[in-house]
Amino acid sequence: MELKNYMEQHDRIREELEILKRLCKNRDLEQTSSEIALHISSLAGKLKIHLSSEDQYLYPSFLRSGDSRLVNQAEEYQKEMGNLLALFTEFKDKYNTKIKILSERESFFGEAEKIMRSIEVRMQKEERGLYRLVR
């Protein structure tokens, strides 16, 4: 199975995460909130494409593989994926504009850090676990 496309998608998602981390590190929302909102929306698009592709093509092929380790891990990851997508969608809807970010500035940084970390952990888990089973 060819995982190159999925790894490239992970790389593009990581690029957005790094930009967001850099912007958040500044802590000056008056200066950066518009750009942060732009990258939250960009990340949302990249995640939607990636997760849709995984859900429609990659995971079904894992589940049909006949390899019980791969099937079990794919089932576990699919359950987790739904939760991550729901959490990110909630975050995106809450912070996808400058006004929304500025009106929730007290909670923004903590929530941003938490969701970005969850996405990173998810990708690492796939790359170090599930993807290695099919290489």
Automatic annotation (TrEMBL):
<dbReference type="InterPro" id="IPR012312">
    <property type="entry name" value="Hemerythrin-like"/>
</dbReference>
<protein>
    <submittedName>
        <fullName>Hemerythrin domain-containing protein</fullName>
    </submittedName>
</protein>
<feature type="domain" description="Hemerythrin-like">
    <location>
        <begin position="4"/>
        <end position="133"/>
    </location>
</feature>
<dbReference type="Pfam" id="PF01814">
    <property type="entry name" value="Hemerythrin"/>
</dbReference>
